[in-house]
Amino acid sequence: MGDFQLLSHLCTWEYVRLNNIQQNQDKLKSIIEDKFGYLKHLKDNEYIVPDDVFIAYAETVSVAKPFDQDIKVPPEAHYIKQSYLDTNQKRENFVFRLKKLKLSDYDINIYYAIFNTEKIIVLRFSVFKSGFIKISLPHERIHYEIDKLSESELKVIREAEEELIKTRIDFTKAKDEGLLTESEIESHESYKEIARKNPRSAELINSMKAIEVKSPKGFREISISQNWTEFYCYLATGDIYDRAEKLLQRSYPEAYRIFIEMKAKAYQGMR
Ligand SMILES: [Zn+2]
What is the domain extent for residue 21? Predict the structure, then answer.
């Protein structure tokens, strides 16, 4: 596709945005299987798109952040800080993929406009049916809230994460201080059993990471290591063991305060 056609898409963008996106969203909402009643909680900057459109988008931008090389499964939802369709090649590629889905030009313009809108959350259709919405919506909302923080607030929560991720704590001490839940104690006891069979020092066996993600660990650990803000998303959705939040509260009260405020906004209307 040449520049001329691409330009025509760009020119219709404002028109599409102002007049037709709402109609498109209303139509989608009328046919979606909203098993858990989450539609009513969506905010103005939160959009839904059919799965095949979402996948076409994810595949188009997969070479850029935040979709990484090794992650083959497209995510369930996406916070768009600023358009990731940021080159002509990606824009053309996205339109090409939408055409392959046999969408009308009208619908292509709508989805093109949605994915070019800044500071929005896009959710794929199936998260409402699968129930993933309960996790993916607050997760993306935390990304949105982090994006709204001031430079100094950002610094506070970033430094807290950088410290905590390096921190190891003493299991016995943490247990005595009431820092651990039953499931954390159980999980560490079973880890110790396995560790004892290997020639390790008693000290290592007795220590645990301050930040430990719950299973499945792989994807989550990678995403936190690549983007520190993911820590706060997973913490908010309960995917990190409780001691991290208790340590945040105890040692980084300002970061904790910011986190609790963001979490309250992320779950607004959902609980
Ligand atoms: Zn994320």
Answer: 3-130
